[in-house]
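Protocol step 4 of 6: structure prediction from sequence.
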Amino acid sequence: MGPISVNLSANLPVLNGKNWDRWRVQMKAILSYQEVAEIVEEGYPMLIEDSTDAQKALHKENKKKDCKATFMIHQCVDEAHFEKITGVATS
């Protein structure tokens, strides 16, 4: 997962309430390119008390991907939609 391209961020689609279908298609492409679409669509399992080191490492990577996806989504919604999603725990 590399950093978000400056050129990409200048051309991000913004959901304004009237462009849902187009925004959804564009976001799927962007999130896939950023390798976080699966996390958004399927989520990831929470850790249990007796998790192995491998499970902990995978969880940390999934959480990082989720944060990246949340950041991308926050950049791609107007102020009204941002207020609606600001309190969510995962992408």
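Step 5 (inspection) to follow. The chain has a mean pLDDT of 90.
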